[in-house]
Amino acid sequence: MDAFATRASKTDKRIALGRLARARRRGEIDAPEYRLRRQLARRAESLADLQALMQDVGDYHHGRDHWRYGRWRGPVREGRELEVQRFVGALFVAVALIAVLACVYAAISLYGRWK
């Protein structure tokens, strides 16, 4: 399955609308064209539809590093990266909780045997 054939999420649409607004402010597209593209972006079914709307709109604003995710990851450009990082973070928290519970259980067991 093609990556652009996937369903456009709310985040994808929000990013596309933001890029359209920046292009409008920079004067790359005029007001009627902006209104039309904004309507089409809201109705977009797939990422390919959104990509077609953004074909001639330059992206000079290359995202920013987010304070919560650190600079090791590079600039955050799309919302999907954050979903992956959220999943990995939850996985680390689960592993840490299991490790803490195992250590507490071992300490209680050793204390019970020693006493």
Question: What secondary-structure arrangement, pairings included, does this model have?
Answer:
Layout: H1 10-26, H2 31-43, H3 47-53, H4 80-114
Shape: rod-shaped
What structural category characterises the helix and strand content?
A: mainly alpha
Straight-line distance between termini: 62 Å
- Alpha carbon gyration radius: 23 Å
Total helix count?
A: 4
Percent in helix: 55-70%
How big a fraction of the residues is strand? under 5%
Whole-number mean pLDDT: 81
- Number of E-state strands: 0
The biggest beta sheet is recorded as:
none
What is the string of helix and strand elements? Answer: HHHH
The oligomeric state of the chains shown is single chain
Low-confidence stretches: 65-73
* Total domains: 2
